[in-house]
Design goal:
The structure holds two protein chains of two kinds. Chain A is of the alpha/beta class. Chain A has helices at 14-26, 39-49, 70-80, 99-107, 122-129; strands spanning 6-10, 32-36, 58-62, 89-94, 112-117. Chain A is globular. In chain B, a hairpin with a 3-residue loop joins strand 17 (485-491) and strand 18. Classes of the chains: A alpha/beta, B alpha+beta. Chain B: This is histidine kinase.
Chain lengths: 131, 506
């Protein structure tokens, strides 16, 4: 397993950004983290860089977001990515534990590695980062 | 003298023998009776068959008159028997009468007497008479009458009409009950097939023709169709028509079809009503589901933040802790806002604020624009108002404020940084309903992607207080609670137009 050195957090809740930063810090995760408030901003950011080399190793993706939600992001992202070997590992993070979302996550099985329910705890981080 | 060119007949005796032979072939009782002026009568001739019909000898019949008039004939029928005979004698009209006899061997039999009276010169009347046993015929008639009675009774009891279509003449028989369904006099009738077809509801015609065609083409063994038929009151009623072809010609083409027609108007109207109720329940259920989703999702996101924060605080140092406490305040604020949104939604759903007043639309809009004055100035928004001065809407004041405020703030919030924001308010009357369009030249929404969820809470209700989801959801609920609806037209990077239809009766 490749070491995670860079990651994106895509979540519209700015307090959550802060909380995650602190959680990473407390658990000794030193990957370079970039935070986005919705899928659209993340896509635009990647288009701006215009090279797959800068793709992160990991994406933590919220389901419910304005402008472009998690599923729309996935559609767009998987449609534009041309080399799946270089695809980041993607985990969905949601505050609702419902069948619709869980079934939807199965649709993206190839791209999505797992589905976590908020709040994220230390044990979840251990699974995600294989600490 | 020649008799029928028959060599057998040479004289009176041979003629008698000839007639006797002929008479023997007739199963009926033949007799001649003479009624004299003094009311005495005599039977001058009777055929041998009297043995069979009356179970007496010819002599008994001729001379024991009581046997003919009294003994054999049913007591109840004796009066009518003699009355009819006298009537015939006096008027010289045909004597034709049915009566019952009780015979020693055969028991009860129905007989029919027929005779033509002739008045002779001496004033007497001669009857040339014939009596036949009609028991079998009467019994059959009785059976037929009973079964017809039962049929008529069943027809009435079942409230079903009968139709019988003769395709060779294209004439249809309609039973009395069927005429009654049409609102006509309860009397059976015959009409050309077109009489019926012209009364079928135009919207049901295609299906009616298809079902009928399928049956006539032998695709179905029975015909069954539900449609509306025009009654004489000018109103349509739902009916169920059922039938089948009962006769085909030599080439296998249908020539006659029969069936029943039942008035199912009440049933069908209930069914339609039920369907409407189900639709209402489904939409209410969807709203409730949506609501349950918001409650679980939004409260949960705050709760999970709270839990994470508290976990972090446990291990944080003094300086970090101070920063975290500030965030605690943000979480608390967010939670308060969410709860107030939920409260607002509950109030709409439970219709606490549905009081309506006549409100001047332009006046209300100006008030909102005053409230948002600073925002409008900050973003340099150009505003255009095309609402006549005197336009009023029958609305809840708090809802109208909230709706106008929400669409206006949204338009400002999602304006495009690439151009000067423009906002236009246009009033129009569409199909007799008052409508207000709020158009902007902002970022726009990709309706193909977001159309379904635009007003739903599922995707667009977000944690941060600036998100547009909650606002649109509340607005939509308010507009619908007032009996109106919202339509949206939008193009990415061009702008968005929301059209608010006020209430139906406006």
């Amino acid at each position: 397993m490749k070491k995670i050195s860079s990651l994106y957090v895509i979540d519209d809740d700015k307090i959550y950004h802060f909380l995650l930063k602190n959680l990473f810090k407390q658990n000794g995760i030193d990957a370079v983290s970039t935070f986005f408030c919705n899928g659209y901003d993340a896509i635009e950011h990647m288009k701006g860089n215009n090279t797959e080399d800068v793709l992160p190793d990991l994406i933590l993706l919220d389901v419910n977001m304005p402008i472009m939600d998690g599923w729309q992001f996935l559609e767009e992202f998987t449609a534009t990515a041309n080399d799946f070997a270089k695809m980041p590992v993607i985990y969905m993070i949601s505050s609702s534990n419902n069948d619709v979302d869980i079934n939807k996550a199965k649709e993206f099985e190839g791209a999505v590695k797992g589905y976590f329910l908020k709040p994220i705890c230390k044990e979840d981080l251990q699974k995600i980062f294989v600490l | 003298m020649k008799f029928f060119d028959n060599p057998e007949i040479r004289d009176g005796d041979s003629l008698n023998a000839f007639y006797k032979k002929l008479l023997d072939q007739v199963p009926d009782l033949i007799f001649k009776m003479i009624w004299k002026e003094d009311d005495l009568y005599s039977i001058v001739f009777a055929s041998e068959t009297v043995n069979e019909i009356y179970e007496i000898t010819v002599d008994q019949f001729k001379f024991q008159t009581d046997v003919f008039f009294r003994e054999r004939i049913f007591t109840e029928d004796q009066g009518a028997f003699i009355d009819k005979l006298e009537e015939s004698k006096n008027n010289l009209t045909k004597w034709d009468h049915r009566f019952r006899v009780q015979l020693p061997k055969k028991g009860l039999r129905w007989l029919r007497v027929m005779a033509n009276p002739e008045r002779k010169e001496d004033g007497s009347v001669s009857f040339y008479a014939r009596i036949s046993d009609i028991t079998d015929q009467v019994e059959q008639e009785e059976q037929l009458r009973l079964s017809d009675e039962r049929f008529q009774f069943a027809l009435k009891a079942a409230s079903e009409g009968i139709w019988d279509w003769d395709m060779s003449t294209n004439i249809v028989y309609f039973s009395a009950q069927l005429m009654k369904i049409l609102g006509k006099k309860e009397k059976e009738a015959y009409y050309p097939n077109t009489f019926w077809i012209s009364r079928i509801h135009p919207d049901d015609m295609d299906n009616y023709q298809k079902v009928k065609g399928d049956h006539l083409k032998k695709k179905t063994t029975t015909y069954e169709s539900i449609y509306r038929i025009l009654t004489d009151s000018g109103k349509y009623r739902w009916v169920l028509s059922r039938g089948r072809t009962v006769k085909f010609d030599a080439k296998g083409r249908p020539v006659r079809a029969m069936g029943t027609l039942k008035d199912i108007n009440q049933l069908k109207e209930k069914e339609i009503e039920l369907g409407n109720t189900i639709n209402i329940i489904v939409s209410q259920n969807n709203r409730l589901n949506n609501f349950a989703h918001i409650v679980s999702h939004n409260l949960r996101s705050h709760a999970s933040n709270l839990k994470m924060l508290l976990d972090l605080i446990k291990t944080a140092n003094e300086k970090e802790r101070e920063e975290m406490l500030q965030h605690l305040e943000s979480i608390s604020d967010g939670l308060t806002i969410t709860i107030s949104h939920l409260k607002e939604l509950v109030e709409i759903q439970t219709e606490i604020k549905t009081v309506k007043e006549k409100l001047n639309l332009r006046h209300y809009l100006k008030n909102i624009l005053n409230i948002l004055h600073n925002e409008i100035k900050k973003h340099g928004v150009t505003i255009e108002i095309n609402i006549p001065l005197d336009v009023t809407v029958d609305y809840n004041p708090a809802y109208l404020e909230s709706i106008l405020l929400n669409f206006t703030t949204n338009a400002i919030k999602y304006s495009s940084p690439e151009r000067q924001p423009m906002l236009s308010y246009d009033f129009e009357i569409i199909d007799g309903k008052k409508a207000l369009s709020v158009s902007d030249n902002g970022l726009g929404i990709d309706l193909k992607k977001h159309g379904n969820s635009l007003f739903g809470m599922y995707k667009t209700f977000h944690k941060n207080q600036n998100a547009r989801g909650i606002g649109l959801f509340i607005t939509k609920n308010q507009v619908e609670a007032m009996g109106g609806k919202i339509e949206v037209v939008s193009e990415l990077n061009k702008g968005t137009t929301f059209k608010i239809y006020f209430n139906e009766e406006d």
